[in-house]
Design goal:
about 110 residues; six-stranded mixed sheet; mainly beta; four-stranded antiparallel sheet
Amino acid sequence: VQLVESGGGLVQPGGSLRLSCAASGLSFSDYYGMWYRQASGKERELVAMISTSGSSIYYVDSVKGRFTISKDNARNTVYLQMNSLKPEETAVYYCKLGDIDTWGQGTQVTVSS
């Protein structure tokens, strides 16, 4: 199983980014998709989760209304659209699938003016 995150970068407060997580080596459509983030010196936290079909979605309260998780089973990819970004959301963002104990390298998101 391999997970490859991309789409991070430097953005000003209030800006937007779209993260992608491409998966290989598994039956992608059988798994929940999740995005986590880990800021420097802090624990990794779950940001958003989407069910296998996309019919059920969870967001941590701090991102509700600003972030959108989606899943394209045909492309084996999970996305995270992030709008109205805040400096405190600077972190490395990781994706995960279901209970598979595999992490990608993450993608750095830096929100700064």
